[in-house]
TrEMBL record:
Name used for this protein in its record: Predicted phosphoribosyltransferase
CDD domains registered for this protein in UniProt: PRTases_typeI
SUPFAM superfamilies for this protein: PRTase-like
Keywords on record: Glycosyltransferase, Transferase
InterPro entries cross-referenced by the UniProt entry: PRTase-like (IPR029057), PRTase_dom (IPR000836)
């Protein structure tokens, strides 16, 4: 695929995960929006990290979420590149209010305005490909799929390493 163009959001997440491979420690991956969940799912799986939605947003995807304690933690906000800058800024403010020690933004590709907004409010920004994001399969992420991805991610995190994930039938989507 050409720069900034992905087959789907899962592929975009796998490409972003390669860039984020150096992140270590107790990072929490938060999807900025429902359409970002497939991207964030692949990133969280690659990092063996906990995945959730931005506090306040995830409830709409799957009901009452378990409380995440972000105090002193490193938070990786992931989007598919379709968020507007105000959404990102509000999410960063929310996780900082919850005590996040460090906030990182990750995008497979993103418009300049989103990257500039991220650069003003996060501690670190990672963009896998230059240019605007483009997806061959650009269908929105339905609420049912969002709930399923969060449930699968919780199971993977509880199980542990990626090797265990493959043993339980979770492969590249």
């Amino acid at each position: 695929m050409s720069k900034g163009k992905f087959a789907d959001r899962f592929e975009a997440g796998r490409r972003l995960a390669v860039l984020l491979d150096g992140l270590d420690g107790d990072v929490v991956v938060l999807a900025l929006r429902r359409d970002a969940l497939p991207v964030a799912f692949e990133v969280a799986r690659a990092l063996d990290a906990r995945l959730d939605g931005v506090p306040g947003e995830a409830r709409a995807w799957r009901g009452e979420p378990p409380a995440l304690d972000l105090r002193g933690r490193e938070v990786l906000l992931v989007d598919d590149g379709g968020a507007d800058p105000e959404q990102l800024i509000a999410a960063v403010e929310r996780v900082r209010e919850m005590g996040a020690r460090r906030v990182i933004a990750g995008f497979p590709a993103a418009p300049r305005e989103l990257q500039e907004a991220a650069g003003r409010v996060v501690d670190e920004i990672h963009v896998a490909e230059p240019g605007l994001p483009s997806y061959v399969d650009d269908l929105p992420t339905p609420p049912e799929q969002a709930a399923e991805l969060l449930e699968r991610a919780l199971e993977l995190y509880a199980i542990g390493p990626r090797v265990e994930a493959r043993a339980h039938g979770v492969h590249d989507t």
